[in-house]
Structure formats: C-alpha cells, structure tokens
C-alpha cells in the first residue's frame, strides 16, 4: 500500500473503532433509556435500587424521577441529563461509588420543581421576594424516596409505564 493511503486508512479505522465501541456501549449499557421518563431506567445502576424501591412506596411515587431531578423545560432537561449521566458514568467507571450525593446544581433544580408543583403552598410559606432560609427537602426529606414504610390507602394511578 502506498504511504499516502496509510494516514487516511488509519484515521478511518480509528474513527470506525470509536464509533463502533461507542454505539455498542450506548446500546449494551442501555444509555438510550436515560432519554426517556421511565423511572426503571434509573435502576440500571445497582446503587439506585434502594432509592427506587423507597420511591415505589413514597407519597410522590406518581412523579417520575425527571419530575424532580431535572429542569421542567426541555431546554434545561436534556443538558442536565447529559451532565448527570456523564458524571455518573465517570464515577461508576473510575471511582468506588457506594453513595450518590446530590450536587449543588441539582439541589437548585429539586427546589425549583418543588416550588413549581406546590406553588400555592410555597406562596403561603414563602411570599414572593422573601429570602429562602431552607430547601423544601431539608424538612421533607422522605417525601420523594420515602421512609421505607408503605403509605396509607391504595396506591394512586401511575402516570408512566410500569417497570
């Protein structure tokens, strides 16, 4: 093979390898599931099993993970999912992660979603323009992922596909 074909051939082989491995990893790791709103996607990682199981019996069990953990607007949702997914992929690949910690930016997203869904209650507690003293979940920590105890009454109708 003449030398002038070595560099383009080598470049094509490297690009093909990267694209092939990336596609395989994306499909094998079910990364496409994170583009959806199905909470069962969150348990692809073993570390999420306990929070997921607690969420199944929590008072907010009809709200999918994305309803709290990512911004409500599509322009904010997918970049946040990308950042979070990258952070999780890096941590699970290169670090010994046994506990997930909520990032400061995620705390702000959680708070914004509490305020959006519970606007009437928040307005009574925290009038417009007043400074926030605490995040809602500082006091209501077990609301989304439960305390491990089943709530009273029949489970409400789910608004998303069952796992």
Would you kindly provide a written description of the structure presented here, covering whatever features stand out?
- The chain has 163 residues and is mainly α.
- Helix content is 53%, strand content 0%.
- It is elongated.
- The relative contact order is 0.14.
- The C terminus is likely disordered.
Name a few traits of the molecule.
single chain; 163 residues; mainly alpha; Multiheme cytochrome fold; 2 domains; 8 helices
**Topology order in helix (H) and strand (E) letters:** HHHHHHHH
**Beta-strand content estimate:** under 5%
Structural class: mainly alpha
**How many beta-strand segments?**
0
> Largest beta sheet, briefly?
none
Radius of gyration: 21 Å
Look at the structure and give the CATH class of the largest domain.
Mainly Alpha
Query: How far do the termini sit from each other?
Result: 54 Å
How is the CATH topology of the largest domain named?
Multiheme cytochrome fold
Give the secondary structure arrangement, pairings included.
Layout: H1 6-28, H2 49-56, H3 65-69, H4 74-94, H5 104-117, H6 119-125, H7 136-139, H8 142-145
Give a short overview.
The protein is mainly alpha-helical and 163 residues long. 53% of the residues lie in helices and 0% in strands.
């Amino acid at each position: 093979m003449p030398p002038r074909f070595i560099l383009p051939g080598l470049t094509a082989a490297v690009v093909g390898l990267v694209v092939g491995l990336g596609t395989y990893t994306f499909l094998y790791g079910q990364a496409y599931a994170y583009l959806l709103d199905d909470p069962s996607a969150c348990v692809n990682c073993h570390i999420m099993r306990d929070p997921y199981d607690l969420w199944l019996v929590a008072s907010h069990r009809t709200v999918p993970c994305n309803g709290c953990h990512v911004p409500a607007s599509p322009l904010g949702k997918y970049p946040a999912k990308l950042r979070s997914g990258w952070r999780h992929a890096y941590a699970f690949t290169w670090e010994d992660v046994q506990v997930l910690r909520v990032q400061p930016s995620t705390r702000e997203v959680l708070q914004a979603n509490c305020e959006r869904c519970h606007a009437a209650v928040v307005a009574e507690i925290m009038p417009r323009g007043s400074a926030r003293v605490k995040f809602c979940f500082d006091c209501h920590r077990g609301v989304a992922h439960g305390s491990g105890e089943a709530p009273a009454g029949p489970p409400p109708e789910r608004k998303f596909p069952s796992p």
